[in-house]
């Protein structure tokens, strides 16, 4: 009985985890980011900085991109938790950022987006 | 006073484009050197003074189909200002058409047919309101004649009303569709024989009844811009242009480029002769089956450039050169009284120097053009402000007779003067010709647009005033140093042209007894071009900032001081204060009316609540400026919030004469405020080693939503007297924005801004 409950719970977690990692769905979410941000081996800074190797990098650190002082001095290192908070309301997390984006509220879509972003290492290669 | 601009009068009197055509033919010197024997009959103003003037033939502009649909042909280009709506609205009103049955067709470039098509200089309605009224009224008269003939009654007994002609006595009625064919065979009435509507009967003109004809297409993505142009079998190209103006390709290795899947060919474009006018910069084009492959291919080109004569152009050292020039006596461009004597006797002297950097138009849609050549005929689809100039330059450069060159105009995703120059269309034409006529679309990336523009000039404005005991100036000395737009048309000119000096410098309408204005030499090291409101930007920033500085020195309220400086309401002949150009308009018809300038200043001030008490860290600023024969004032409230500049409210008041499309006047004023905030606070193009330092909107910063004023209030001081001449609308909103913001910032922080952009200068 006890082991049945556990495996049932694990099954549910496993399912939601599988949904959470849908990078293909994340690519579609990224379509709205693409107006300003590029990904991949040919990615350049444009209206926004490129997002290759985002997780683990320090905010305001991409060479050649002209950040707002707010972003540059935020002291943030991008990990999943802080990105999750940021993307829901960028101007609440970093007041004074010049990123004009109202925010992504849907948790599933945030999960998908993170999965998509995580595919690219710092050189833009898909892992 | 003697007219110091006498020799330049002739240039002033030919229009912007007439002036260009003259130079293209190598006759700048001739044009300037023409004897100015003041032959009044020869002087042409307004639309008459523009190349190819105007037409009002209803058969050119109006067609009616048997189903009653009215199509108005718009010969001016749509770039967000709403001209397709406004032109059609004027015709429809005089035609007494039902707006729901009116469509708009876009004219091709053909000035012999349509009259002048240069959509610039805030002139579309100013010059074509009356011709378009006459075209509509003549078409209406032809419909009435057709109905009268059909009914066998005198034409005086019938009248057009709401898309039909009525014979009231018998109750008969024929709608426009039923009359279309018969009306078309009626003779076109002469101007003396038909009546224009009484303005009290206007249904659309001056009203807020209709939205943009292109709104639906724009909001649903159906609108076709230059960047969207497509045709069968087309190829796509991007161009690697010399990073420094005047540079050229020394060698190119395209081996890796040609290995990119989709890349078809690499084509060199020859560098232009100098002056380069509207010719492309030259470079290496990568032609591919899609834009992405072309861009990938361009990245792989290995080009060795010869940077040419401007390789050391750097903004910081150039600024020092302009400053040095502005600190020495120079060519006098306006003189009243004896400034030196008055200055020496003055109670107090104030001086200040202002720096306004290069800017770029940065339209949201970068330049784009599609060109094909087939059976000896060239056809282009492009987002151009001047389709006729595009046509003549394509003809000349490709060696194809002009009658075999067709220029189709798409919508423009912003223009601001950039798209007056068809260099990008010529690129597409040259590449297509090299490819045997295959349709080729040239795409400019954002980086291309920022790196290879026709930049707004860079200026140092030095001002010095001598004040009397009351704090009012008795002497005013100003030196304006800036490279001229003339440099793209003539070899190495050193001085501003009359049209640049006449943009808010020599025609500053102040009640000061002793004035001297000078224009030091300046050399252009990049392509200088028109940018919305052109030289009014630096002149208004410097003068309106300086007026506020004088007010402060005199211990007075800046608004009251500004009004006192303008003096009592009076009419000034611009030619008498040294402005022979007067925006191309007749100085008798368009004198400077200081009463109107005073009124917009009062309106903007009243709007923002001038004089109200403000919380700590807030400030109000004001500026008023006359340009494009319209009067605009801006009052701004700013607040410093930590390290951020916030703009809670801007009030902008315009008097542009009679109002035609009030919704568009408001939109243009709102747009001018948003653009003005950008150039005041963040926008700057700077050069280092001949190269532009900005790459994209991260570094060339335009206004974003979070820095836009929280509220923008537009006050139309425009009149309903349609007998009065029209002023411009597209450009005059911009010049007073930056000085109003800088003056507000001074009120908020005590920090005087003497260089743009403001960025974080208020923190220092």
Automatic annotation (TrEMBL), chain A:
InterPro entries referenced in this protein's UniProt entry, alphabetically: Cyt_c-like_dom (IPR009056), Cyt_c-like_dom_sf (IPR036909), Cyt_c_1A/1B (IPR002327)
Signal peptide: 1-20
SUPFAM superfamilies cross-referenced by the UniProt entry: Cytochrome c
Residue ranges of every copy of the Cytochrome c domain listed in the record: 21-121
Cited Gene3D superfamilies: Cytochrome c-like domain
Name of a matching Pfam family: Cytochrom_C
Keywords: Electron transport, Heme, Iron, Metal-binding, Signal, Transport
Domain of life: Bacteria
Designated name of the protein: Cytochrome c family protein
Organism: Microvirga aerilata
Lineage: Bacteria, Pseudomonadati, Pseudomonadota, Alphaproteobacteria, Hyphomicrobiales
From TrEMBL, chain B:
PROSITE patterns tied to this protein: TAT
One GO molecular-function entry: oxidoreductase activity
Domain (Aldehyde oxidase/xanthine dehydrogenase a/b hammerhead): residue spans on this chain: 220-309
InterPro entries to which the protein is assigned, alphabetical: Ald_Oxase/Xan_DH_a/b, AldOxase/xan_DH_MoCoBD1, AldOxase/xan_DH_MoCoBD2, AldOxase/xan_DH_Mopterin-bd_sf, N-heterocyclic_Hydroxylase, OxRdtase_Mopterin-bd_su_IorB, TAT_signal, TAT_signal_bac_arc
Entry superkingdom: Bacteria
NCBIfam families: TAT_signal_seq
Protein name: Xanthine dehydrogenase family protein molybdopterin-binding subunit
